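Hello K.,

You asked for the raw outputs rather than the summary table, so here they are, unedited. I folded two proteins back to back in the same session to keep the settings identical. This is the first:
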Amino acid sequence: MYTIARFSIGLAFLLIAAGLDIKTRRVPDELWMVMSILAIVVLIVQLVLTEAPLLYMLIFVPIVFFLVEAFVDRPVLYDGSRWNPLVLLWFLVPIITMAYLVGTFHGDPEVWPLLAIPAMMLVAFVLYYLYVLHGGADAKAVLALAVLLPYYPYIEGITNYGVDRQMVEAMQSLFPFTFVILLNSSLIALVLPVFYLILNTKRGDFNFPQMLLGFKTEAASAKNSFVWSMEYMEDGERKLRLRPKEEDESIYDDFPGDEKIWVTPKIPFIVLMCIGFVLSFIIGNPLLHLL
């Protein structure tokens, strides 16, 4: 029941987000906020119906903290002259709560998947600030998924098929299911160079390594597309950059409009995450199968 509910919620919101990401490269915060609220409701219902200890509910303190940090503007902690005591308290409350939960229930295996939720949410913030997750929508999707999927899904004969159930339960605390989705989404991304290789071979464009990272298109067309240019002009000389991170549209004005240049698409990671989400429910954690 919980697996079906979580799969339905996750897929519905990821499909909407993927469609918006493809069209506009913008996903409104409200989408992830509603998804997070529904995820919290499902988790509360599960904890109540399974008669979990009431103190388990304290896990929602750090969960709400991270969600507020992601979606709400708050006063700064230090303004250059003094510390804000209320903001300092705001940071201390989830830390104290987590310490209390760990100290009280450290011998209870049922609590560790819950503790992995705020841990995974912290990872989402870290990945965003390290530019591993390039977009704010990507990071907020991970936050919502962390709340939605504290436990590995279980579908008889499908998810993690052939893997010992005890190993699955042990892994869900060490390797949260949201991490599984990110892993499978990244594995899907590895297929892209193969696609570009086939496309460029068919077109007869054999420049290496550009042919593994993108394709050629007219400069005028590229200016109005969701792509980064791998080529630019400097001192009248054509130069190459394989991993562009920022784009200045004036870069295309240095080329004749009908001249073809190498570009790499701005892949909407939400789309890959949506595919990885479905794939994760089918095959589960690939590391478990390797083990």
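The second followed immediately with the same parameters:
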Amino acid sequence: MLHIPIPPERAGMELDEFLCLSFPLLPKGFLRRQVRDGKVLLDGNKTIPGHRLRENEVLIVDFEEEDEMPDVQVPRVEIDVLYEDEHVLAVDKPAGLAAEPERWARDNACLSGALLDLALGRAGLERPEDGTTIEHLEGLPFRPRLVHRLDKDTTGVVVVAKSIEAERGLRAAFDAGLVQKTYLALVEGEHRLPDGESEVIDLAIGPDERKSGRMRVDRQHGKPSQTRIRVEQRFKGYTLLACEPLSGRTHQIRVHLREIGFPLAVDPYYGRRNSLSLSDIKRDYRKKPGHIETPLIDRLTLHAREIEFPRVEGIGRIRVESPIPKDLARALKQLAKFRAP
């Protein structure tokens, strides 16, 4: 059982937010259930998760890991911070990193775990090595909150709120269409859109009922979806497109590009390749005897290059850019060398 007095700097904070900062290794839903079940008391009395705390109130916390606590331990991974102020972080997500722990692979690293480690590190704290998840940690400066996501194998910039107020403001900006995102997509085919011009793909998208977890163009029952595209670089047989999603549907860019005949060069769901190798690009490629060819890129050829969003305090906008990752840059270099237009 823990007795936690409310410090002056936390007065006015909602109880569940205070618990998230005090027990950062635990999911917010779990903590809210403990409050409702009476395992978190305020001055000895039951309360609600949204109660606004007052200075010198005392929390009595009496819950244990046996209380249906899921295992949230994930491996540590470092991520680069592209931008930061008092309200938000913008980080550079690498390939192969899911946003949250995956249902069937909870031992894998994830972006939310990496962000938590970042916040803990700022406070001179670390996740326990023994797998313990319930631990009261004082001094955590913020609890990171993802406000949008990228597919596991998509790289690029992701914006993270550092407070509940920032999260609400950013989500409202997304809902109002005030956030502009630009992706780079390496696709199969030579798009004939003139340089300097753009076009909008306007095709409704809905779930693909034949394939779980996938989407498809559904003109009758799908949700309205628009993606603006323009040509960034041309190659023989391939095109690098800049794609700006004007709506926020799952797999939107990938589905739209496939539908117009320009699927991602690497996309196991909506394209025809799991990887792109030099032998796919260089027409006279000869494999050395006994040599196993390493792909130039073996994940989605999609990169979230840039995001622009309103400042949380309401004055001006912030633009953050992510550098092209090494694997995509390597593929583009070989295309420029062997597939120049």
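The mean pLDDT is 87.

Happy to rerun anything if the numbers look odd on your end.

Regards,
P.
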